[in-house]
Amino acid sequence: MSSRTVAKRGFNLDYMMWLFMRLSALALYTIGLTGLIAAFVMSARTQTDISTLIRWTFFPNPSHIISSDIINLDSWINSFWQVMQMLAVFFGVTHGINGLRIVVEDFIGSNWWRPIWRGFIFILWLFILLVAVYVVLAS
After folding, report:
1. Alpha-carbon dihedral angle through residues 105, 110, 112, 114, given to the nearest 10 degrees
2. Is 112 a domain residue?
3. Phi and psi of 118, rounded to 5°?
4. For the segment 60-110, what is each residue's pLDDT rounded down to a tens digit?
């Protein structure tokens, strides 16, 4: 197995994706903490179990917690939380797919398979994002 060549200096795809991986991780931490703090503010710490709390942190949907004694969440479920869900899905999926791209490119080298794999990974990324956006908007 041969090692990868050193990337060119300046703004290129590898540098931009390296930077994106760091920033998207920070964004995911911020989104998760925002949801967790909001759940605690809405008295979830005394009314739900830990799995429901974590699920609500990333996807605040009142139908997830029907069987609990939490206050009416309809006023809390608004476009802000849908935007937070979309951001979590975008950053999470893109972060994971970029990691997959890096691993695949490490193993295939620089032959004619690389554009085929990049195209397949791009189509996979689009498909997962479209399905996730549909799920967020439909719920």
Report:
1. 20
2. yes
3. -65, -40
4. 655 555 555 555 555 556 677 788 888 889 999 999 999 998 888 888 877
CA distance 32 to 85: 10
Query: Is residue 117 included in any domain, yes or no?
Result: yes
Distance separating alpha carbons of residues 44 and 90, to the nearest angstrom: 26
Coil, helix or strand at residue 30: helix
Dist. CA 52–CA 48, nearest whole Å: 6
Please check whether residue 121 lies inside any domain of the structure: yes
123: containing domain: 13-138
pTM: 0.72
Tokens 């549909």 found at:
134
Amino acid 118 reads R
Encoding tokens for residue 30?
């911020």
Q: What is the pLDDT of residues 23-34, one digit of tens each?
A: 999 999 998 888
In a domain, 8, yes or no: no
